[in-house]
Amino acid sequence: MQGPIGVFDSGYGGLTVFKEIQKKLPQYDYIYLGDNARCPYGIRSFETVYEYTKECAFKLFDLGCNLVILACNTASAKALRTIQQNDLPEGKRVLGVIRPTTESINEYTKNNKVGILATQGTVLSESYKIEMNKFHPTIDVFQLACPLWVPLVENNEIDSKAAHDIVEKDIQRLFDQSSEIDTIVLACTHYPLLLPVISQYVPENVTILSQGELVANKLTDYLHRHPEVETQCSKNGHLTFYTTDDAKSFEANTTIFYGQKITASHLDV
Ligand code: DGL
Questions:
Q1: In this model, does residue 186 exceed pLDDT 90?
Q2: Which UniProt keywords apply (predicted)?
């Protein structure tokens, strides 16, 4: 039976990716699920992120989704592969955001020196290095965990002095690893919101990539290449938003991530 496309994140951040998917592919029905009650995932163990992500993906399957996108980098890094290999019920698919990013990175870097800014969990998983090495083994990857960036965004301190100080120091740390980096991936759902600050501390010749558009383009390709999945996605342009935390505060905080007001409901997973 046809069903909506599920989009999952640990909280609000995945809305930056979802916004682009929905813009590019407005014909489909979508269910967005944010696990706000258990956010952040970026500091949690492999087992915990895997369990939480699996629960949420299965909740989306129960709600009728046949295809679920893990918009969260940490979940993509720590849970996607295991879920794909061990847990998927027949006819259900789960995709992440790391592969679409690493597959197309060669379209951006000219000197094969790429910086990855992400949560601690994503960095420690080495997923970006592993995936990059599969598709583009000549690319050197320089990673930096930026544990303070998610709280800055969550606390709406995007343009504060603290944000400037922290971002400047972290960008310096990344370039201390290699001054030749010519492309930086914002490999965390929250970081695109800090782009106006980040771009002030990154040299002008460096490309800064947010994942939303990239993921939306790759999803479009994927659906073309997989008609057996595409035909299982319902197309009425209907959007549903769920959070595992309080719906009213979810609604109040989503505008900076999604760009418009939404109506959400609480969901237990
Ligand atoms: N959504 C997470 C990510 O993209 C960031 C927030 C969190 O740590 O849960 O890695």
A1: yes
A2: Cell shape, Cell wall biogenesis/degradation, Isomerase, Peptidoglycan synthesis
Q: Taking the domain 5-97+213-266, which CATH number applies? A: 3.40.50.1860
pLDDT, tens digit, for every residue of 240-259?
A: 999 999 999 999 999 999 99
- Domain 100-210 coded CATH 3.40.50.1000: no
Which atom of ligand 1 is least distant from the CA of 74?
Answer: 10
pLDDT at 249: 94
Distances (CA, A) of 104 to 18, 100, 149, 174, 239: 19, 7, 25, 21, 28
Question: Which two structure tokens, joined as six digits, stand for 178?
Answer: 């290699």
**66 close to ligand 1 (CB < 6 Angstrom):** no
Residues recognised as catalytic = 72, 188
The string of pLDDT tens digits covering residues 115-144 is 999 999 999 999 999 999 999 999 999 999
Domain boundaries, the chain: 5-97+213-266, 100-210
- Give the whole-angstrom CA distance, residue 71 versus residue 8: 6
Q: According to the model, what pLDDT value does residue 146 have?
A: 98
Q: Is 244 annotated as a binding residue?
A: no
Per-residue pLDDT at 154 exceeds 90: no
Q: Give the pLDDT score at 156.
A: 87
| Residue 189, ligand 1, Cβ within 6 A | yes
